[in-house]
């Protein structure tokens, strides 16, 4: 009695959901219940099919599971970056496209400096000009941070490994912070307890083999100017950095010992120029004292990249040979209108073909989804018919035999039906093999005639 009541309740719910598709049960309740379950499965498949069709153009609505799947962490190092292009409005025929060229970064020697934009103090962070290694395998750039609570500045130096399968220009154009190594190779002190202090790191140049990078750390105060510049060399092979503070001590010692001038009482600083062109183990720096009028040259010095030895080279900067190894990308003008217009025409053709191909693929995708949906419905119908046949067979046997005899008779009939089905499959396979063999012989004869 209870199963019958449950079946009636289930059928009534189905009647409410699908209206006239499922009627209240009458007659064989088991059959009606099976029919109801079958229709539920078909409705679920229909909803899955409609959801897949709608998912091709996402509406923005999604389940929690879908959101968690899409928001899962991704490997940013594998994300592809395209060469940036100036967007072209639809109502404009020609928009000037900038042209770029690769030039030496440290030219003239010691000239690289950070340029702080006006938006830096609003955004509180800025990525400055980067330097590319001589073999175009990596790009190093400084990231500067602003702390408004103390009006102070700090800096990190990051590395981006450039993609190999691109031209040198495209390697630089597609370099993106997404691909940077997560940990900086150099960092300044980030304590912001002193007001208006700034600490920055500026790449100066690579060594000729690209294994070392010369960097200058500037420490100062926005109200008082630069206090001290320190050369730093980072070794990419051993992943260590060398603070070349010793060269400052050598300069102070020389001028006090031989010139009787105490630089500690004066305002002076050094300018790292680059690596020695004749020996990449040495770094060249220039020292200058400030007198309030014309700066006084304190000599050009060189120091080993580990900071162990320092020497006075000359008081004449022209006698110093500094190498220039790193590269940077600069705007060299704009592409000629004729080139841009031809490119626009070509891109229109490409876009037209892409849209055509996209529509074709969408049509094929819809066809495949519909085909899969219909195949699933066909499979469900076949399973339902088979289960109904099986139910009718059991019912017919049980109505004319005892329970044990009915089970044996049912199994015997099922075995005979399965044997018959297997024989039909074998015949079908044999027929297909004969057709294939016939086609093969026909193809061989055609080839022999040719």
- Supply the number of structural domains: 3
Poorly predicted ranges: 1-8, 14-25
Shape: elongated
Strand content: 15-25%
Instruction: Give the fraction of residues assigned to helices.
Output: 40-55%
Protein model, in words:
The chain is 41% helix and 24% strand. It is α+β, with helices and mostly antiparallel strands and 450 residues long. The chain folds into 3 domains: 2-70; 98-334, no CATH class; 363-449. Helix 1 packs parallel to helix 2 (29-55) and helix 2 runs antiparallel to helix 7. The protein is elongated and about 125 Å long. The two termini are 79 Å apart.
Please supply descriptive tags for the structure shown above.
450 residues, alpha+beta, 3 domains, five-stranded antiparallel β-sheet, four-stranded antiparallel β-sheet, 15 strands, disordered N terminus
Q: What's a quick, concise take on this entry?
A:
This protein has helices at 2-18, 29-55, 64-70, 120-123, 168-173, 246-258, 337-400, 403-449; strands spanning 98-104, 125-127, 131-132, 138-147, 152-161, 186-187, 197-206, 212-221, 225-235, 240-243, 267-275, 282-290, 296-304, 310-314, 327-334. By secondary structure, it is of the alpha+beta class. The strands form four sheets. Strands 2, 3, 4, 5 and 6 form a five-stranded antiparallel sheet that branches. A four-stranded antiparallel sheet has the order 7-8-9-10, with no helix packed on it.
